[in-house]
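Q: Could you predict the 3D structure of Mannose-1-phosphate guanyltransferase C-terminal domain-containing protein?
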Amino acid sequence: KRCTLLKGCHIKSHAWLESCIIGWKSVVGKWVRMENTTVLGEDVIVKDELFVNGGKVLPHKAISESVSEPQIIM
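A: Sure. Here are the predicted structure tokens for Mannose-1-phosphate guanyltransferase C-terminal domain-containing protein:
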């Protein structure tokens, strides 16, 4: 809810998104929970079953661990 999904992004089954911006060609894995104004740049991959709380992820990155505190991921 309250999200912006840009062209070419893919949200897999059972993902829960709130107040997020998902960049071009990004992939959000199964059972991912993203909230608190999380922003994904272009071509970002979020692996399955992760929690992202307010992360800002720069383009062309892969996230394989949960982000419990808001931070910038370079």
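Q: Anything worth pointing out?
A: The radius of gyration is 10 Å.
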